[in-house]
Amino acid sequence: MNITEIFSQSLNEVVNITALSFRVSGLAIAFAALLAIPLGSLLGLLDFRGKRALVTLINTLMGLPPVVVGLILYLTLSRSGALGPLDLLYTPTAMIIAQFIMAIPIIMGLSYSAISAVPKSLVERTISLGATRSQLVMAIIREAKVGILASIVAAFGGAISEVGAIMLVGGNIRYFTRALTTAIVLYTNMGEFGMAITLGLILLAMSFMINLFLTYLQMKDLGTRGPRLPKGVD
Amino acid sequence: MREVLRGISLEAERGRISCVIGPNGSGKTTILRMADLLDVPDRGEMSFDGNDILALGPEERIDYRRRMAMVFQQPALYNLNVYDNVAMGLRIRGIDKQVTGKRVEEALRAVDLYDLRAARAHSLSGGEAQRLCLAGAMVVEPEGLLLDEPTANLDPVNTIIVEKIIREYASEKKGIVVFTTHNMFEAKRLADRVLLLIEGRVIEEGDAVEVLNNPKEDMTARFLKGEMAFG
Question: A95, CA 20 to 30 Å: which among A25, A214, B208, B216?
């Protein structure tokens, strides 16, 4: 192969790897958000027995090691596992499931925090204005929307940077289940540093963009509310 | 469990301003919260227009609250602009957009905040925030206006604006106005009827001029003297 063909093949592979990473993490987070935001909101809005224990459990699960999730899912999806007949091991679907599982407690926990942070005085003002239950819930979620959005962004950032779980359940198959993080590991081990660095820069750029957006949201929300030292104070 | 109020009897008439006066922690805020059904008494009766409001079902309670409006001592602001904060009560009631626009504009002009309608509510000063909350209460045209220390955090200029609005509301709209204060001078300026509360108990009640100028009870006189010393 000449240099153009090599470049073209490499570019094709980079595009494929990047697109897969976006697709897997994007879908995983989208599904996780659909489930976790309502659950996290309910947790923040309701009082019930065992709430404290549940919140502690969610906080614990937020720190779940990805490779442990990958291991459990691997055992479940393998031929001898409970879901072996579904034939999902070493597919993008398995990768989506792994990242979905890891994202749920993150989005749920951060949504719960955002909802809980809405001041009681504002809740009472809304009740006092004659809001129905659904109007009250919508008002609270609206007040917490930046925090809830931040939970999605944070979960996406975590998912796209994760390597352990998707390596185990995806198998890092070329043009099929090879994502940015697993590809970087592979090319580094192979000594193909050019490719590894290229993919690393792409991942870094994506992480930067995600965090830039997160910072924008936080600054927009804090805006005139956050603590700020006046000019001239050392 | 601590007993916050005991033996309270308060009657508020339309077109007249009633004041619950007393030191901090006397239970003034609790009275207003109960009137707005944010707290429920363990014993006793509460009625509005002859209806027992403690017996209301969930939907009836919402209807009742929509006939009242409460302004809290500490302003509670939505993370929205000034206009949307004031409009919130109307949107909750499903009021038409055009009507909302007109009423919000009138309310903002009444509290001298019209020029700040696009500003973020959290950027307002304490006095402006309190006026915003007052506008948010008035805009729904309530039958009952409950004000918890409405001028406690205000400078003299803002105090004059707020007191004028309260007076006009009672005389023009003929609504029920109940406000709380620990400031005897404000009670003298605004109130038609006064109820003095100390440690959750009614010490004296009656015509504002009578109670504040010629108190019958010794404790009333002592409270007023203490207020005079620091007021």
Answer: A214
